[in-house]
Amino acid sequence: MSAVTPSPAADKTVKVVVKGRVQGVFYRNWTVENARELGLKGWVRNRRDGAVEAVFSGGAEKVEEMERRCRRGPPDAMVTGLHVSPCSDDPGATFERRPTV
Q1: Which residues catalyse the reaction (predicted)?
Q2: For labeling, which of 9, 27, 35, 94 is most exposed (least CB within 10 Å)?
């Protein structure tokens, strides 16, 4: 057998909804910093229901690390729920902060 080389198909894309005290505590900016540090594509935004929603796309290990980081969040956040689901949305070319929906 030949060596297996990573391909773009090995990338993972997920949508994450974070609940708790996650607005007004620097959560979106913290998410942008962490996602860019991990080399992920996607976006993050506040939702009018008080949650933060994000799409993360990249290598499976990096996406899973971002999921772990989101469970903790920045120092002033209190995450009470994290819902992760597979996503087929186009994550874009970079990681960005989007307007509230």
Answers
A1: 28, 46
A2: 9
Whether the CB-CB separation of 33 and 22 falls below 8 Å is answered with: no
* pLDDT tens profile 61-100: 999 999 999 999 999 999 999 999 999 999 999 999 999 9
CA angle 89, 17, 45 (to 5 degrees): 70
Question: End-to-end alpha-carbon separation of the chain, Å?
Answer: 49
Q: Which of 28, 36, 47, 68 is catalytic?
A: 28
Amino acid at 5: T
Q: Cα separation of 18 and 79, whole Å?
A: 7
Q: Which of 21, 29, 46, 47 is catalytic?
A: 46
28 is catalytic: yes
User: What is the signed CA dihedral for 71, 25, 27, 48, rounded to 10 degrees?
Assistant: 100
Query: Angle formed by the axes of helices 27-37 and 60-72, to 10°?
Result: 150
CA angle 71, 18, 100 (to 5 degrees): 140
